[in-house]
Design brief:
Blueprint (H helix, E strand, L loop, with lengths): L2 H4 L5 H11 L3 E2 L11 H13 L11 H15 L8 E4 L2 H12 L5 E6 L5 H7 L3 E6 L9 H7 L4 E7 L11 H14 L2 E5 L25 E6 H4 L8 E4 L2 H11 L8 H12 L5 H21 L3 E2 L7 E5 L9 H12 L1 E2 L1 E2 L12 E5 L4 H18 L1
Parallel strand pairs: 1-11, 3-4, 3-5, 5-6, 6-7
Antiparallel strand pairs: 2-8, 7-8, 9-10, 10-13, 12-13
Length: 384
């Protein structure tokens, strides 16, 4: 069998969620919300099941959804996109897979910023390419242009860029975006820009897509997610957005991954994108309140919590919190003895991973956050 998969461990998210279920623990590990979705979109999906098509959708996606995605970004970012720029996929991870398979060939190299979403490295290797890591350093997690440029080699073909950033909750600033763009332009690289958290912005932050920077539209493949936009992660509706030539290549890879996604969910997402944007500000406010509730509770319990500007996530520095255990040991103690599942940050890097931090998902109801904070207070006492 393929050694890539024979030697691969189960995803840390699956592992911690299974542990949470086994120990009846509060699950602050896997990144899904338990509130926040618009009921109107659920009703649109249900109606599409009984009144719409339940057969194969076009592989590139329902035209109504491709047009809605293009219109959404034109409205929010002043772009000039059309349906031909868009390919609908079965979630953003499948979008990443299609983009990576389209962009990389055996023997190529791709750069990732670590800590990184754990799908990047296996997908790069599945394309026959090699991974080059550029480590971001806590607590700022800033991109250093010189370190990025130094990682580019003769076989480097792509940069995998994630903004806003999972797992750190960082929103990269204009200078950091230009650092990535300038290196890509200088070395003629494709950038696969994972922008799934683009609407989960807190504290009045503003997001700029990498493709909007000068001379980047023709070298960026953007990956987006309806699951993140509408807090419906189980729907697994995502997309790639790119210049038509690159969009077509990503679509060719997509057609032999999942071919097409559920038509009723595509129709409902199109409805949601076209129905206006009144849901965005209230969603951001609810997530900001949840983040603040968790942060305040953890700091009161003696934890050192790093700032989070976007996404569902915040990071806790165990070492600075007076805890001598590494992140894996603490995560095991927390779920087995204190009743709360967390994610060790070392799972997000392979070379010199940080072993003194954990990631928590704050996109939870008040009672879930409070139960998780209480369990983490217990875990801190057990670990000291």
């Amino acid at each position: 069998m393929n050694p890539l998969y024979e030697q691969m461990e189960t995803s840390v998210f699956e592992r911690m969620s299974l542990a949470a279920a086994r120990h009846n623990a509060v699950n602050l590990g896997q990144g899904f919300p338990d509130f926040g979705w618009p009921d109107e979109i659920l009703e649109a999906a249900a109606k599409a099941v009984t009144e719409g098509s339940n057969q194969y959708a076009p592989s590139r996606g329902l035209p109504v959804l491709r047009e809605a995605v293009a219109a959404h970004y034109n409205r929010h970012h002043g772009l000039d996109l059309k349906a031909e720029h868009v390919c609908v996929t079965s979630g953003a991870t499948e979008a990443l897979a299609a983009a990576i398979l389209a962009a990389l060939s055996p023997g190529d190299e791709a750069i990732i910023f670590t800590p990184a979403y754990d799908a990047y490295a296996p997908l790069i290797r599945r394309a026959g390419a090699s991974v080059r890591e550029v480590a971001l350093q806590p607590p700022e997690w800033k991109i250093d242009r010189d370190r990025l440029a130094a990682a580019v080699g003769p076989q480097t073909r792509a940069i995998i860029f994630n903004n806003p950033h999972n797992p750190t909750g960082r929103l990269f600033d204009a200078d950091e975006l230009e650092s990535v763009a300038s290196v890509a332009r200088e070395h003629d690289l494709v950038v696969i820009s994972d922008e799934v958290w683009e609407h989960i912005l807190l504290d009045g932050q503003r997001f700029a897509p990498l493709a909007s920077l000068p001379d980047m539209a023709d070298r960026v493949i953007k990956c987006g997610s309806a699951g993140k936009i509408f807090s419906l992660t189980g729907w697994k509706i995502g997309w790639t957005v790119a210049a038509p030539e690159m969009a077509t290549l990503a679509a060719r890879a997509h057609q032999f991954l999942t071919f097409a996604s559920a038509p009723n969910l595509q129709a409902a997402v199109a409805f949601g994108l076209n129905d206006g944007d009144a849901w965005i500000a209230p969603m951001r406010e609810r997530f900001a309140r949840a983040r603040d509730r968790m942060t305040e509770g953890l700091r009161s319990a003696g934890y050192v919590v790093l700032d989070s500007a976007a996404s569902y996530f915040l990071c806790v520095d165990l070492e600075a919190s007076g805890i001598g255990l590494d992140d894996e040991s603490f995560a095991r103690l927390a779920v087995e003895q204190a009743g709360v599942a967390v994610v060790p940050l070392s799972a997000f890097a392979e070379q010199n991973p940080p072993t003194h931090m954990i990631r928590l998902c704050f996109a939870k109801r008040d009672e879930t956050v409070e139960a998780g904070v209480a369990a983490l207070a217990k875990a801190r006492e057990l670990a000291r």
